[in-house]
Amino acid sequence: MLLTCKIDNIEIKRETNPAISLKTFLKETLKIINIKGNCDKGYCGNCGVTISGQYALSCLVPVFMIQKKEIFTIQGFSTTEEYKEIEKIFLAKKVFPCPACAPARILLAHSILENAHNIMEEKNISDQISGINCTCISKKDYASVILEIQKEREKRHDKTR
Ligand code: FES
After folding, report:
1. pTM of this prediction?
2. Looking at ligand 1, which atom is closest to the CA of residue 37?
3. Are 106 and 86 in contact (CB under 8 A)?
4. 96: CA distance to ligand 1 center in Å?
5. Bridge partner residues of 14 (DSSP)
6. Beta-carbon count within 10 A of 144 CB
7. Mind listing the domains of the chain with CATH numbers?
8. Beta carbons within 10 angstroms of residue 130's beta carbon
9. How far is the CA of 122 from the centre of ligand 1 (A)?
10. Nearest CA owner, ligand 1 atom 3
11. Average pLDDT for consecutive 10-residue bins of the chain (161 residues)?
12. For the CA atoms of the chain, what is the radius of gyration?
């Protein structure tokens, strides 16, 4: 199939086997090297990307499903102001995810907050972060980082009201 989509702000038009996973397409066809995860079965949770703003495990998404969609990997997201803010808060709270899960954690944190309809409580956040199974940081610390990012975004929002 001819796949047309936007990945990390770049328009892509490629012939591809529609059945391969998005992860394979990103890593092997586009040579995006910082797509993590090695189970290819949805277990580790480290291969996350966003698809039209929604967080998804790229190993579980057949590539035909991203036709005409907009994808962000950590490579593209790392050029945004939101990324810098998230990174700063991880550092300030001294929560240091390992290189294997950090990209997924950053994209998931951003996506949870972007898609939240209300102010998130720790409990709602905990329910949504359980898919990343790396144990380098605790779920509690990770949730506390997301709460802090939310606080910063709210402050900014208040200023612009
Ligand atoms: S590679 Fe492990 S969840 Fe995708």
Report:
1. 0.95
2. 1
3. yes
4. 20
5. 3
6. 16
7. 2-75 (3.10.20.30), 81-160 (no CATH)
8. 9
9. 25
10. 42
11. 97 97 97 94 97 98 98 97 97 98 98 94 93 96 97 84 64
12. 16
